[in-house]
Amino acid sequence: MHSFAGRCICLVRCLSILFFHFLVDVLLKAVGDTPIMKTKKWAVEKGRTVQSLSQFISRFLKLEPGEQLFIYVNQSFAPSPDQEVGVLFECFGSDGKLVLHYCKSQAWG
Amino acid sequence: MSDDGVLDPGHFHLDEKSFRFCCQSFLQHSDLLSDGWSWTEVKGSEGFMKKTVLRPRRNSPLKTEALDFMTEEEKVEEEEEEDAQVECEKQDVVVYEYHVLYSSSYQVPVLYFTASTLDGRLLSLEEVWNSVHPDCRTQLLNEPWNTLTQQEHPVLGQPFFMLHPCRTEEFMQPILETARREKRRINYVVTWLSVVGPMVRLVVPVSYCTVPDQNRV
Fold first, then answer.
1. A24-103: in CATH 3.10.20.90
2. What is the pTM of this model?
3. Is residue B52 within 8 Å of B36, Cβ to Cβ?
4. Which residue among B133, B186, B206 sits closest to A83, beta carbon to beta carbon?
5. CA-based nearest distance B83→chain A, Å
6. Chain A residues closer than 8 Å to B208 by CB
7. Contact A53, A85 (CB under 8 A)
8. What is the pLDDT along chain B (217 residues), one digit of tens a residue?
9. How far is B110 from chain A (nearest CA, A)?
10. Which single residue of A85, B22, B55, B162 has CA 20 to 30 Å from A13?
């Protein structure tokens, strides 16, 4: 284990453990007529905000400028845009992941 | 509405009785969290929930949301600076009063609010518009004056700002449909307020949706 390869493996393991603590598994589920994302499971940084995630999903789904994306936790509650994903994971995560439902609708107004 | 609180299928609005139940439950939770909501009942008229929040203005010298973010030492230093600072601070604090009413014409809850400085000056529609969450501003940009308007408060008769309820059923629909299908109960007012609140800087703590209770529709 004192070989160069051994030390690399050790370093990679340490980094994975570090990353593990900074990332949360998020499972994205579509609601209603909203398009389903091909990749549903994402590793998201704990400090990422709901708004940032929402923008990401909107771009991924190629939403029109007039369309709005809503994100829900616990299938019933829209977390504040400034809320951190890590905090939501602590409150609502189960089986090692946070399930978020997303829904598309026409522009407000 | 039937006895078990199930809404008419195909409808995503709320009747007044259910609105009151939802508010009752909401208020119980608010008390637990000391979130500051209270119920006001005016004789011969409807009741509504209300909450008052003090905030620094967005582009004020106060950099954070908390007014007591400064330590005592720092506060003294601040005071020792020009006297103009004191005048400035009064202008930079905005008092928001949020009211949750029931709209009998749309049969959904409606959010009214008023914003004024500490010396009693009401903010203009433009000033309020500027305080809307920047990300929500893009959403409201298409027809902002239709969605955020100045209206006479139905009970108090004073001018208030209001988020128009015409789209409420639309954004509530997918959530309610899924909940009904899975025979889950949700609190209509909690879900609705969690969506519209952030648009006008009203924070609804996420724990409102975790407490199981009887008063859900």
1. yes
2. 0.80
3. yes
4. B206
5. 35
6. 77
7. yes
8. 333 344 555 688 899 999 999 999 999 999 999 999 999 998 777 899 999 999 887 665 544 444 444 444 555 555 555 444 545 566 678 999 999 999 999 999 999 999 999 888 998 888 888 777 666 666 565 554 457 888 999 999 999 999 988 888 888 999 999 999 989 889 999 999 999 998 888 999 998 988 554 444 4
9. 14
10. A85
